[in-house]
Specification:
The complex is a heterotrimer.
Chain A lengths: L1 H11 L3 H39 L4 E4 L16 H10 L5 E13 L4 E9 L1 H4 L9 E4 L10 E4 H7 L6 E7 L5 E12 L4 H6 E5 H7 L8 E5 L6 H11 L7 E4 H4 L1 H38 L2 H9 L4 H37 L6 H7 L14 H26 L4 H6 L2
Parallel strand pairs in A: 3-8, 5-7
Antiparallel strand pairs in A: 1-9, 1-10, 2-3, 2-6, 2-9, 4-7, 5-8, 6-7
Chain B lengths: L1 H16 L3 H41 L2 E4 L18 H7 L4 E15 L4 E9 L16 E2 L10 E4 H7 L6 E7 L5 E12 L4 H6 E5 H8 L7 E6 L5 H11 L4 E4 H4 L1 H38 L2 H9 L4 H34 L4 E2 L4 H6 L5 E2 L5 H28 L2 H6 L2
Parallel strand pairs in B: 3-8, 5-7
Antiparallel strand pairs in B: 1-9, 1-10, 2-3, 2-6, 2-9, 4-7, 5-8, 6-7, 11-12
Helix pairs in contact in B: 1-11, 2-9, 2-11, 2-13, 3-7, 9-13, 11-13
Chain C lengths: L1 E12 L6 E12 L3 E5 L6 H8 L7 E6 L2 E2 L5 H11 E4 L11 H12 L3 H14 L15 H14 L4 E5 L7 H18 L2 E5 L3 H6 L2 E6 L2 E7 L2
Parallel strand pairs in C: 3-8, 3-9, 6-7, 7-8
Antiparallel strand pairs in C: 1-2, 1-4, 4-5, 9-10
Helix pairs in contact in C: 3-4, 3-5, 4-5, 5-6
The chains are: A alpha+beta, B alpha+beta, C alpha/beta.
């Protein structure tokens, strides 16, 4: 084995320039894939996070059917108790109860429709970033305070500012008219068009009072430390609520169903792109392998004449191409790691990204950090290793049909 | 000297390439694949942009709009405008504008027996919306609006599902009238429209222009004038004309109305250029390697050329000419196959309806279209040829540096 | 006025102890219209001398003048120019560009000189005719015999109307009949056109045609014999 290995290695360096160029092509594509895949998945994480952290949370507990048709009557009867018991386990990063309804908000001169949400001001910060996104005034002060915060576009449309009063008009749980006059204490700007144009928040108790909800609420929103722990979070909630058949636990896939398919579309597209890129590199490399075999036909003839078997020569060549690919892979992985390390340290931003994602309703999008998972790193290099070696076999297979005399006669 | 020596040098280059047909074909394939891929990605990207743009323009935006100067910031009744005067009509009815119409837009709340939602009530002139916006197309269920006096209402298909209502049923529209009083009125649903995006279907409900005006007491006032032109290129001078004809109003092109679409287009175009470069580098390795091999195996011949009195510069030219032929062929084939794929095979687009909710997230329709523009083809072709020549500069200079005597003596 | 002059030309390959003197202080004058043979065993410096004169290689020291110009002082471009217009080469083998036909090989040189297509065509035909290859103009080198290939090489060397033709073992790959006819051709051209020939060879047949025979050994000219 030692001799064969040494022979393969030295053969590789008989034509340095070609070896480096081929290794360079492999290194280039390896670098690209090695850094690309984690960043691609990191982007998804960021998109999911960005849309979840503003309002939906990592999981929600609701009554069955509420997600599809959010009727005010379809409320969790013991919401406050349940929330408290879950909170007492200290197992969740954030947990808060919410109630919501569609209302007409009127200022002196204007009326606009709005989604009003009853929240627990003390805990809402654990499941939503809206409390931190108040640009004017302040967030809600207490669970039964008589006050309201509204989205920035909604405030502009209503021509109201902090200190003004708005009239809230809707239908309460028992079917009667729900009405209240509340002072605006804060205006938030999330960057999401929908939230800023249609959302307003009031304290939960105030909500329950206005809408005759008693102690009920529509959803309990839960977050874990980060989105990657969501499967554990869902399992944990399912265990905690095993005895309850009147409620369901929903993950982000259900809460923002468009996102999952959007990622699916992007993933498919991304993999097609990478596949074709690999194909181009493989064709670039195939040539080198082909020529290096053809120009050595004479040498192989000599080896055959000396008693080598075609199989052994083919083995030698495979070893050579394997070594060459490995060389390129190692260089690529080193550069790729450096890139990923750098991206992980500083985070990536595209120019114009913020405006773009705002358009897609993903507010507060921050930098992209690569998703560090073994699969992400292995995918590219393995694909390249397999593809380039398969390419190398095409010329190698010709060796098996080689006749020594004919081979030695070729130039 | 150069001009008269081209034919024979060209013959020499061409025949040299076909001394190793397999090698030439493989690298040609890599170049073709790369160019094809660039063409396809560009066509896909442009398809997406165009589709987004068309959706935006067809989504009640038009190529340009005229408003009361304050309407965009605060779309309320008091910021409406009178019907176009004679001077403005002259510009609107001039040759450039293919279709224009006036509309009333009113923020409103729509209520069925079960649900209520915030919408924009749009009063339209149904016959003039044809070719101007999506509502000019026939409805999918029931009938379209027939005149400006039509007092039926047309709502989105998915809106009807949310409101749990259907054609023939009544819904209530609640809005503020001109005196800031809340007015409500029952409407019979006469038709359902369908749009690519759910957001569009749930954002707008349509009735006759006069009906809407009467409802809020606007007399002959309107909210906006929307128009489409013959060609997007001549839009800017047209908008300037509109500003001159109606200085008291705000005339804006779609670029100004939808800056996000413009940003998105810029980001895409930057991205696609980076993408070109990545693909190019992947194939450049192969090209450089192939040319290098072609030079190495011809050292003796290059020595002969030098002995015959060919200047080093001409030898560089000879090698470059060979790769120019290769690049030119690759570009030609790539363009041809690219055109075949986009204009023949995928002429009807790629159906993405399996990922409908995902494409919705990206604000694109469920069919992906490929559109190639001459300028993209030219960019790709010039880029590949120029950078390709750059990549073969190294082998060419290498060839010219051979000392003639070594080249001839070498076995 | 001599066509070629060498003054104390020295060429050393390698360095230090391994250094080999391929040419050792060679002085030589060749007059216009000469038909000179360089003979000697392999490694005696024949080819090196030929390469020096043709500007394919540079001397380590000494002066080389070809048609009034100092070859050793020229840059690459000037050398190329000189070879293109004043010197023709005939090598032992691999003389021709394999992908071009006989005619195209001949035309190649005058095309580099910038001659028009018409003239080129006519001239190439004439010269191929003169060297006895009419009818074979459109064959590629691989389709020609060794003797025919060398005739194409001679035609190509002639076509630029050089003052000097350098030939390195032109008959090495030829049988004696073909070699004889090639030498007849070269002598004929020498007589007819007054072109100076400098031929390196160890073929007795070639030497017998020489007007002046230079015998070389270990990088030096040891004998300078005028014949006939």
């Amino acid at each position: 084995m030692g001799i064969v290995f040494r022979l393969a290695w030295r053969n590789l360096w008989r034509n340095r320039r070609r070896t480096w160029l081929t290794a360079g092509a492999i290194a280039f594509s390896t670098t690209l894939l090695f850094a690309w895949v984690p960043i691609q998945f990191g982007t998804y994480d960021m998109m999911i996070n960005a849309s979840l952290k503003v309002f939906p949370g990592h999981a929600q507990i609701q009554r069955p059917g509420y997600l599809a048709k959010p009727k005010i009557q379809n409320a969790i009867t013991d919401a406050e108790l349940l929330t408290k018991s879950l909170r007492d386990t200290n197992q969740y990063a954030g947990i808060s109860a919410r109630a919501q309804s569609f209302v007409l908000l009127s200022s002196g001169s204007r009326s606009y429709g709005s989604q009003v949400v009853g929240v627990e001001p003390e805990y809402e910060g654990g499941t939503s970033t809206i409390p931190t996104l108040v640009k004017q005034g302040r967030y809600l002060s207490g669970i039964d305070a008589q006050e309201i915060v509204v989205g920035s576009a909604l405030a502009r449309n209503l021509k109201i500012t902090v200190g003004d009063e708005v009239t809230l008009l809707g239908g309460s749980k028992d079917g009667s008219v729900a009405a209240a006059i509340l002072p605006v204490v804060g205006i938030f700007k999330s960057g999401s068009n929908d939230l800023d144009r249609f959302f307003s928040e009031i304290p939960l108790r105030t909500f329950q009072e206005i809408f005759a909800m008693g102690n009920t609420a529509h959803s309990i929103t839960v977050t874990s430390r980060n989105i990657e722990q969501q499967p554990q979070l869902l399992a944990q909630l399912a265990r905690a609520l095993a005895k309850r058949d009147d409620i369901v636990v929903l993950g982000w896939e259900e809460l923002i169903p468009g996102m999952k398919e959007a990622i699916q579309v992007d993933k498919t597209g991304g993999f097609i792109f990478l596949g074709i890129l690999i194909a181009i590199v493989v064709f670039s490399i195939l040539n080198t392998f082909l020529v290096s075999v053809l120009e050595r036909i004479r040498e192989f003839g000599l080896m055959l004449a000396l008693g080598s078997r075609p199989k052994q020569i083919a083995g030698l060549l495979m070893l050579e191409s394997g070594l060459l690919t490995l060389l390129g892979l190692i260089i690529g992985v080193v550069i790729g790691s450096a890139l990923v390390y750098w991206a992980n340290a500083v985070g990536l931003v595209y120019p114009g990204m913020e405006e773009l994602v705002e358009q897609f309703g993903l507010p507060g999008l921050s930098r992209i950090y690569p998703q560090i998972k073994l699969f992400n790193f292995l995918l590219g290099p393995v694909a390249i290793f397999v593809c380039t070696n398969l390419a190398a076999w095409i010329p190698i297979l010709r060796i098996r049909k080689l006749e020594p005399v004919a081979a030695m006669r070729t130039i | 000297m150069i001009a008269s020596s081209l034919p024979l040098l060209g013959t020499l280059g061409w025949r040299n390439l076909w001394r190793h047909p397999r090698r030439t074909l493989i690298i040609l394939f890599a170049i073709t694949l790369g160019v094809w891929f660039m063409v396809i990605s560009a066509a896909m990207m442009i398809g997406l942009i165009e589709q987004q743009l068309n959706d935006t323009i067809f989504n009640l935006t038009g190529h340009a709009q005229i408003h009361h100067p304050k309407f965009r910031d605060d779309p309320a009744i008091e910021h409406s405008m009178p019907l176009p005067n004679k001077k403005l009509l002259e510009t609107l009815d001039g040759g450039e504008v293919t279709q224009w119409s006036v509309r009333v837009r009113l923020p409103a709340i729509v209520m069925s027996e079960r649900e209520s939602r915030g919408v924009t009530l749009v009063g339209i002139d149904p016959t003039r919306e044809i070719g101007l916006s999506f509502i000019g197309n026939p409805v999918v269920e029931g009938r379209s609006l027939e005149s400006i006096e039509d007092n039926g209402i047309v709502i989105g298909q998915r809106m009807a599902e949310k409101l749990e209502t259907r054609v023939g049923k009544r819904i209530v529209i609640m809005l503020q009238d001109k005196t800031n009083e809340v007015a409500d009125r029952g409407f019979r649903i006469v038709g359902l429209f369908k749009a690519e995006l759910e957001a569009t279907e749930t954002a707008y409900v349509f009735t006759g222009l006069s009906t809407a005006q009467t409802l809020v007491g606007m007399a002959n006032e309107i909210s906006e004038i929307s128009l489409v032109t013959r060609s997007r290129e001549k839009l800017d001078p047209l908008v300037a004309d509109l500003r001159k004809a109606a200085p008291q109003f705000e005339s804006l092109s779609w670029q100004e109305l939808e800056p996000l679409v413009v940003t998105a287009m810029a980001v895409y175009e930057n991205f696609i250029f980076i993408w070109y470069l990545i693909i190019f580098v992947a194939m450049a390795f192969g090209l450089t390697n192939t040319m290098l091999m072609a030079v190495f195996e011809r050292t003796r011949e290059i020595g002969l050329l030098q002995a015959l009195g060919m200047r080093p510069r001409s030898i560089v030219g000879q090698v470059m000419l060979e790769s120019l032929i290769l690049l030119f062929l690759g570009v030609l084939l790539g363009n041809l196959i690219g055109w075949l794929t986009t204009d023949i095979i995928l002429r009807d687009g790629v159906d993405l309806s399996a990922f409908a909710r995902g494409t919705e997230q990206f604000k694109i329709g469920s069919t992906m279209y490929f559109i190639w523009r001459l300028e993209d083809l030219l960019t790709i072709d010039v880029l590949v040829i120029v950078l390709g020549l750059l990549a073969s500069l190294y082998p060419a200079v290498k060839a010219a540096r051979y000392a003639p005597v070594e080249a001839i003596a070498g076995n | 006025m001599p066509t070629v002059t060498l003054k104390s030309v020295r060429k050393t390959f390698g360095e230090g102890e391994l250094a080999v003197n391929a040419l050792n202080n060679v002085d030589l004058e060749i007059n216009a219209g000469g038909f000179i043979c360089l003979s000697g065993p392999s490694g005696s410096g024949k080819t090196t001398l030929l390469n020096m004169v043709g500007g394919l290689d540079r001397p380590s020291s000494g002066e080389i003048t070809v048609i009034d110009k100092r070859v050793d002082l020229m840059d690459k471009g000037e050398l190329a120019e000189m070879r293109l217009h004043s010197i023709g080469f005939v090598f032992q083998a691999y003389n021709l560009i394999p992908v071009l036909t006989a005619r195209e090989n001949v035309e190649f040189v005058i095309q580099l000189q910038g001659m028009s297509a018409d003239m080129r065509h006519r001239k190439a035909s004439d010269i191929l005719n003169e060297v006895g290859l009419d009818g074979l103009e459109d064959r590629k080198p691989a389709e020609l015999s060794g003797g025919q290939q060398q005739r194409v090489a001679v035609a190509r060397a002639l076509v630029s109307e050089p003052a000097l033709i350098l030939a390195d073992e032109p008959t090495a790959n030829l049988d004696s009949v073909t070699a004889q006819s090639l030498m007849d051709l070269l002598r004929h051209l020498n007589d007819d056109r007054g072109i100076t020939f400098l031929i390196a060879t160890h073929d007795k047949l070639v030497m017998s045609h020489a007007r002046r025979l230079l015998q070389m050994q270990d990088g030096q000219i040891i004998n300078d014999i005028q014949q006939r």
